[in-house]
Structure formats: structure tokens, C-alpha cells
User: Which sequence fits this backbone?
């Protein structure tokens, strides 16, 4: 009996074909996604929906409003517009950047069903922005404010930073922007803007404890218009003055002038530059010819020397008969070697102070580093002149209330407390007595304070090791219950940064926000400042030193240095110049504005925009 074969009907064949076609359709296509169509306002009714839209039944006794075209924005659309505005203004971009073709393509690939915010709606929303609140709680510790002013024509842009601790023991660094007309730029107006920054809603009754600024006259006028505990000058101003005076010393300025003249001539002579490039290729040195430095910016001088020291061998091989000026002799080359090493230490100190964790506890440690760098200078006359300059500024820093504040802050910092590099043992005992006297005035039990100081001293006899995960801030948070009195004092003294906020980064020529506010409608300036400040991090003055430090990290000093043969007679001058702070002297911030009107003084001392600003 023959086996019966299963019979397939035509319907079964059709079903197999259909199933096979479905399998091929489920595979992803090998084509790129379609490009976005021309942008226009897409009504909500044109979006793809899963369910069909059924017509609504007519509502009795209700007239149809012919002006309603689109439903109101949802909360998601409002949030997207706010985030987009903060992103654009925070990076110095105008609102019209939202219509950029490539940016729209990027948004389309992220989500092709949602239209991007419109520039017109974003501008309308900008006008409704309010001044944000810093959410400062007075019971957590004091409040410190730093301020710097940048003048742009008849406008003054104020960069203000506020520093305080929250409940979790973390220091908050907030950046704020304000704008003042030059005619209204005076102490009362600036003090009023600071009050608005601190208390936007005017619902609290607290003030600023500490004020810090690089502008001495503005600092005086602002503090005359509002109460405060103490005022400070930005430490980067001291660094800048010391570095500039070092560069102007005859032992350094003569060689630096010869080096600038040589590099300038090499830029001008095309034939000599061609020979320079040939020698450079033969020696396999891939370093470009440096541009001339700005004489008023010591960081640009350091950058200039870092390039010249790598090209020193090539410069020395270029003959004078090539219509070139004389290159450095042995004495001048030795001076450039010592100046380069000295400015490297200044740059290292500045890079440590401009970070968000900056604190006045670093001041004395920074001065000790500079003192050691001056002692290593190999030119006797220059070393003596540098010691006199160092003594002048160290005396200004260490005396009076400000010096006591710096000393107690260094004592309470576990990185520098009881360090022999800063003070000797007798000077540290003197600092302890100042802290005890201050706590006695606050009606603290002297026995409890002495016990905590003894316990703290045992913990810092061997300096703790710190890294990115374990910092001096986390060290104090872990011991806030063990040392409650000293922890409160640490919060009090570590709130103040060593340097003020760097306003030139934002509003000077080439600054982050300079182009935006030069092209933005003036009516939107104030509201745009509120949006731009929300995405800014604290950047201290001297932030360019971080970029210069990275560029010079692996560069070896190739300037030939002469051996030091003279006796070290001035070692006693080094130790005498670096002594502990006095106890009874009182220091006021120097002011040279006597006999002049306050408004004119302030306008003259505003940080002007320099055309030759150095950008690393």
C-alpha cells in the first residue's frame, strides 16, 4: 500500500510566503535615518499618535474661541526651554544658536518626534526669569563674598562669588553676575547688589561676614557701605606684584630684553627664519617660534621663556653675520635660567590657589614655597633684591587681624598645621594662644578647648596622606564629633578663599561671555546674567596658571646655569624675613585714595580690558 503524501493546498503556500515576507521585513534596514525636514512650528495635532483622535462632542452654552490655535505648553516643554536657555547662555551662545542646522540634526537623531524649542519662545521666557536664591543658612557658618569688576565701555560687569557651608559640611561656591552703569558705579550700589545676591527674596536678616577683592579702593568703599567682620585682598595680587618686581630687576631685565629683541628679529627676517627652520629639522626639535610676551603679564613671560629654553641651542647656533642681533652671553643666559625657575614656582603656587577648594589656610604655605625659591636663586644681587621684596609683602600679609586670621587658618588645616616649613615651634604656640584667646571671648571652656587642641596636635604630628578621595575637607567631616569646637572654627576660617573670582575669564576680551553680551539686546542683559550664572563654576584669579603649568610640566630648563661660587652670607636674611606673625600690631588694608573723590577713584581703579591679554 503506497504511502500517502501530505497534500498542501494553495492557501498553505500563500501563508508560507506571507510568513517568509514578514521575517524579511523584521530585519533592521541598512539605510541611514532620514534627514530632518525643513524646520517649522509643528502643531500638536500633526504628531503621530497611537490612537485616532475622535471629535469632541459639542459643549452646550460655550462659544468657540477663534484665537485658540494650539494647546498650551506642557511642563516638559517649559523645562526643555529652560534647560536650553541655561545651556546656551552659560556657554556664551545666543538664543539663535538653537536654529543651527547641525544642532537641529543632532536633536533630530536624539528624538525625531519632539520639535526643538523656538528662539522666540525662549526670549519671551527669558524676560520672566527671577534672581535665584543661594539657600544659605546662617547657623551652618559664616558667609564670604568675593567680587571683581570688569569695565566694558560705559558698563561695569560685576563677578561675585559666595562661599558657605551646608548642613552636610560641604563648602558651596556659587557664582553670580551683575551689571552696573558706569555713572552709578559707587560703593552703595555695589553693596546693594551684594545684598540682593545674598538674599534675593529679602526674607532673611543676615549679612556678609567676610569680603575679598583685588581692587583695594572698591573694597574700602563697599565695606564702608555695609557691615562686615573682616576684609581681605586677593592673594594673587600679591603674587603678581612680586613676580612683576622680580622681572624688572636689572639682573633679569637686561637678558630678557636681549632675548625679546632676538626673537622679534627672527620673526621679521624671512631668510633667517628659513635657516632657523632647517636647523630645527636637522636637530628634530618640534617647537614653534614663540610670540613675544606681554610685559605686564608674568604668566606670558613664563610661557615665552619655556619656548625659548627649548630653542636655546638653535638660537645660539644662529650667527650674528646673518643680520641678527647679539644673542645671550653666559651671564644673561644664567639670569634667564634663574628667572625661569623662579617664575615656575610662582606659577605652581598660583595654580594651587585658583581651584574651587581654595582657602586662606594656603597663604603661609605658599609664602614659604616662594621663600625657598628665592633662596635657590643663583645670582647674589638678585637674591638680595628679591628678599627685600618678599619681606615687604610678607610684612603686609602677616601683621594685624588679617595675619592672625591666616595663621589660625593654617593651624586648623591638617595639611599645614604645626609644619616646620611655615613656623617654628614657638610661633605655633603663639598661634595656639591667639586661638585660645578668641574662644575665651566666645565664652568657650578653656579646658575643653585645650583638650581638643592637644588631641588635634597628636593627629597631625605625622601629616595625614591625602588624595582625591580623602581630602582635608573629608578629614574634618570624619572628626566633627571628635573635635566639635575646632570643627566650628575650621568652618569659620576655611570659608574664605585665598583668591577672588576671576572676572576676566567671563567678561574680558576673549572671555566666555564677552561676545554674548556684546551682541545681546540690552533689555535682556540682567535676565540673561541670571541664566548664565547657574552653570558656572568658581574660577579663582590666576586660572591661566593651570594651563601654563600643564604646558611647562615636561619642559627641561636648557638655559646654561653658572656655578654659584660666592658665600651664602644672606641665609640669615632669609630666616629673618620669614618669621611668625606679631601679636599686638594692627594692620589696615593700605589705601592711597586720600584727597580724591570716591566715585572718581573707583572708576579709575576698575580692571580695564587690556588689548594684549594673554590666553594660554
Assistant:
Amino acid at each position: 500500500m503506497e504511502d500517502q503524501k501530505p497534500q498542501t493546498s494553495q492557501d498553505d503556500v500563500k501563508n508560507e510566503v506571507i510568513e517568509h515576507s514578514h521575517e524579511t521585513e523584521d530585519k533592521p534596514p541598512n539605510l541611514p535615518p532620514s534627514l530632518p525636514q525643513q524646520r517649522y512650528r509643528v502643531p500638536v495635532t500633526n504628531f503621530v499618535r497611537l490612537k485616532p483622535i475622535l471629535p469632541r462632542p459639542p459643549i452646550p452654552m460655550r462659544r468657540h474661541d477663534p484665537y485658540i490655535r494650539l494647546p498650551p505648553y506642557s511642563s516638559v516643554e517649559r523645562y526643555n526651554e529652560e534647560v536650553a536657555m541655561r545651556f546656551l547662555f552659560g556657554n556664551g551662545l545666543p538664543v539663535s544658536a538653537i536654529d543651527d542646522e547641525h544642532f537641529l540634526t543632532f536633536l533630530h537623531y536624539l528624538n525625531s518626534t519632539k520639535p526643538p524649542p523656538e528662539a522666540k519662545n525662549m526670549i519671551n521666557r527669558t524676560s520672566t526669569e527671577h534672581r535665584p536664591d543661594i539657600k544659605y543658612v546662617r547657623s551652618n557658618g559664616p558667609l564670604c563674598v568675593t567680587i571683581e569688576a570688569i569695565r566694558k565701555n560705559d558698563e561695569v560687569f560685576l563677578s561675585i562669588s559666595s562661599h558657605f557651608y551646608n548642613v552636610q559640611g560641604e563648602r558651596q561656591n556659587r557664582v553670580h553676575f551683575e551689571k552696573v552703569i558706569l555713572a552709578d558705579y559707587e560703593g552703595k550700589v555695589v553693596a546693594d547688589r551684594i545684598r540682593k545676591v545674598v538674599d534675593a527674596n529679602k526674607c532673611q536678616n543676615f549679612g556678609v561676614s567676610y569680603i575679598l577683592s583685588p581692587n583695594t579702593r572698591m573694597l574700602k568703599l563697599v565695606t564702608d557701605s555695609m557691615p562686615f567682620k573682616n576684609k581681605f585682598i586677593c592673594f594673587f595680587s600679591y603674587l603678581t606684584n612680586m613676580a612683576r618686581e622680580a622681572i624688572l630687576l636689572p639682573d633679569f631685565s637686561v637678558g630678557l630684553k636681549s632675548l625679546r629683541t632676538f626673537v622679534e628679529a627672527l620673526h621679521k627676517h624671512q631668510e633667517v627664519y628659513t635657516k632657523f627652520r632647517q636647523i630645527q629639522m636637522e636637530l628634530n626639535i618640534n617647537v614653534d617660534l614663540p610670540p613675544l610676551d606681554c610685559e605686564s603679564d608674568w604668566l606670558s613671560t613664563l610661557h615665552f621663556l619655556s619656548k625659548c629654553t627649548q630653542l636655546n641651542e638653535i638660537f645660539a647656533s644662529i650667527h650674528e653675520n646673518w643680520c641678527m642681533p647679539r644673542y645671550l652671553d653666559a651671564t644673561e643666559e644664567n639670569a634667564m635660567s634663574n628667572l625661569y625657575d623662579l617664575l615656575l614656582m610662582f606659577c605652581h603656587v598660583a595654580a594651587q590657589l585658583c581651584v574651587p577648594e581654595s582657602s586662606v589656610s594656603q597663604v603661609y604655605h605658599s609664602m614659604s614655597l616662594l621663600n625657598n625659591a628665592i633662596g635657590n636663586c643663583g645670582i647674589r644681587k638678585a637674591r638680595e633684591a628679591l628678599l627685600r621684596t618678599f619681606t615687604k609683602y610678607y610684612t603686609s600679609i602677616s601683621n594685624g587681624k588679617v595675619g592672625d586670621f591666616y595663621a589660625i587658618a593654617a593651624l586648623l588645616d591638617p595639611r599645614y598645621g604645626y609644619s616646620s616649613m611655615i613656623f617654628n615651634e614657638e610661633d605655633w604656640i603663639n598661634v595656639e594662644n591667639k586661638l585660645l584667646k578668641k574662644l575665651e571671648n566666645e565664652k568657650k571652656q578653656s579646658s575643653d578647648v585645650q583638650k581638643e587642641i592637644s588631641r588635634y596636635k597628636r593627629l597631625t604630628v605625622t601629616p595625614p596622606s591625602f588624595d582625591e578621595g580623602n581630602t582635608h575637607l573629608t578629614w574634618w567631616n570624619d572628626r566633627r564629633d571628635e573635635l566639635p569646637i575646632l570643627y566650628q572654627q575650621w568652618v569659620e576660617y576655611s570659608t574664605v578663599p585665598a583668591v577672588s573670582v576671576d572676572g576676566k575669564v567671563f567678561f574680558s576680551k576673549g572671555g566666555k561671555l564677552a561676545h554674548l553680551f556684546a551682541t545681546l539686546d540690552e533689555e535682556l542683559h540682567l535676565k540673561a546674567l541670571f541664566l548664565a550664572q547657574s552653570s558656572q563654576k568658581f574660577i579663582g584669579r590666576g586660572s591661566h596658571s593651570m594651563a601654563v603649568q600643564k604646558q611647562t610640566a615636561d619642559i627641561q630648563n636648557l638655559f646654561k646655569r653658572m656655578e654659584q661660587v660666592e658665600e651664602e652670607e644672606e641665609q640669615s636674611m632669609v630666616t629673618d624675613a620669614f618669621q611668625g606673625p606679631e601679636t599686638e600690631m594692627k594692620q589696615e588694608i593700605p589705601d592711597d585714595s586720600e584727597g580724591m573723590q570716591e566715585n572718581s577713584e573707583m572708576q579709575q581703579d576698575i580692571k580695564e580690558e587690556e588689548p594684549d591679554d594673554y590666553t594660554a
The longest strand covers residues 155-165.
